[in-house]
């Protein structure tokens, strides 16, 4: 497992202080406690160099202290963006921690400074495969026979390293980080206030997510209260895996309440390219008591470093044969892993996923795209230390045209909180 530092240390170590040589040998013999003690002391010396800091960070990573290793790697790379060994070790730290999306972002970022590096390309390929393959969760990235990475040169394949089984049991990863948690329960609650005429709208939901080797399944129960009425909707999301790089999204919702559509069906096919670009195409069908609405949707996403950019559009034919469109732009920054992020979303028009609003006793269906609107929302999600639970908050503002008075607008302000528990 101890392959987080390039073999360049074998040459540099001979020119270093004996204490560094000793720490280097101890680290690669699997005696990370002793190596850490020496390196931690050396790193505090005024003459300490980044070579010592990199080995110290790698030792922390091998001990399972991924967060501390990440902080140290970030410190090193903020000063030396062209340090190849630091980039390689930082990416491997995220792979060990199973933060595959973060590892992919780091590898992409490292390749901006270290052009066409074979090892970074190999790690990038591994991270990309890991994002789309449950095999990596079962075996660990360093044990997977990768078709992509096997075509590249592993510059460390002949190095003598300690395997994970040779580690002191007390230093192995905790069960939480070692085994993927396949179940999640999420509870959400939100409220929307209006600047005129309308009473507040409250919405709640509870969902259960089950991760299988074929993809995810998420049944959900939605509840909404508006205009003095209470409604319930049954919802089901499926994310089946189709092939390498391809997956789908399928949704079905049913309700007998006038606050929700009678039926709603949606689906998308996604393709992830190894360059970090993601495409999707699909459609939505929503059936209300008085009308049906069909729309075509597509999206373009792009992963760059720790950032994700997404542009989605909805195209809907209207009854007067005019085609109406709406869309939104999402920008998200991932923090330590895919479960920790912040983002901003801007949209124009109404997309089929938006909640409904009311005007007096009139229900403004969520698919009336001819009603002009602009919306802006912010989101922030963070997880607990043991990654068992996570929290997501969001706030937003909407400017929407009055359905009964074209050219006049009202504003609404919303806030929500989601709690997620993994097991």
UniProtKB/TrEMBL annotation:
Domain YaiO beta-barrel, first and last residues per copy: 182-353
Highest taxon of the lineage: Bacteria
Pfam family, one: YaiO
NCBIfam families given in the database record: OMP_YaiO_dom (TIGR04390)
Name recorded for this polypeptide: YaiO beta-barrel domain-containing protein
Organism: Maribacter hydrothermalis
């Amino acid at each position: 497992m101890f392959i987080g530092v390039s073999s360049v240390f074998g040459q540099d170590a001979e020119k270093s202080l004996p204490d560094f040589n000793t720490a280097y040998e101890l680290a690669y013999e699997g005696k990370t406690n002793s190596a850490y003690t020496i390196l931690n002391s050396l790193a505090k010396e005024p003459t300490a160099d980044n070579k010592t800091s990199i080995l110290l960070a790698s030792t922390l990573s091998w001990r399972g202290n991924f967060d501390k290793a990440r902080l140290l790697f970030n410190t090193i790379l903020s000063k030396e963006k062209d340090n190849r060994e630091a980039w390689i070790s930082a990416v491997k730290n995220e792979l060990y921690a199973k933060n595959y999306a973060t590892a992919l972002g780091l590898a992409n970022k490292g390749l901006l400074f270290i052009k066409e590096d074979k090892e970074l390309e190999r790690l990038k390929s591994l991270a990309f495969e890991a994002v789309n393959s449950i095999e990596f969760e079962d075996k660990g990235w360093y044990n997977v026979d990768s078709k992509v990475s096997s075509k590249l040169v592993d510059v460390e394949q002949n190095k003598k390293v300690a395997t994970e089984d040779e580690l002191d049991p007390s230093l192995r990863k905790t069960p939480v980080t070692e085994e993927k948690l396949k179940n999640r329960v999420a509870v959400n609650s939100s409220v929307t206030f209006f600047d005129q005429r309308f009473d507040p709208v409250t919405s709640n939901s509870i969902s259960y997510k089950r991760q299988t080797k074929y993809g995810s399944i998420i049944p959900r129960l939605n509840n909404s209260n508006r205009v003095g009425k209470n409604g319930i909707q049954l919802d089901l999301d499926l994310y089946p895996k189709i092939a390498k790089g391809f997956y789908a999204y399928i949704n079905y919702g049913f309700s007998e309440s006038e606050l929700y559509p009678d039926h709603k069906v949606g689906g998308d096919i996604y393709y992830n390219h190894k360059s970090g670009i993601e495409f999707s195409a699909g459609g939505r069908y929503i059936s209300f008591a008085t009308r049906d609405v069909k729309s075509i949707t597509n999206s373009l996403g792009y992963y760059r470093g720790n950032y994700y950019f997404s542009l989605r559009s909805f195209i809907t034919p209207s009854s007067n044969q005019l085609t109406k469109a709406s869309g939104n732009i999402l920008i998200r920054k991932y923090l330590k892993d895919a479960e920790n992020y912040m983002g901003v979303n801007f949209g124009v028009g109404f997309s089929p996923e938006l909640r409904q609003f009311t005007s007096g006793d009139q229900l403004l269906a969520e698919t009336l795209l001819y009603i002009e609107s602009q919306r802006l929302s912010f989101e922030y999600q963070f997880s607990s230390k043991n990654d068992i639970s996570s929290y997501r908050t969001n706030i937003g503002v909407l400017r929407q045209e009055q359905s009964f008075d074209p050219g006049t607008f009202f504003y609404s302000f919303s806030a929500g909180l989601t709690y997620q528990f993994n097991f």
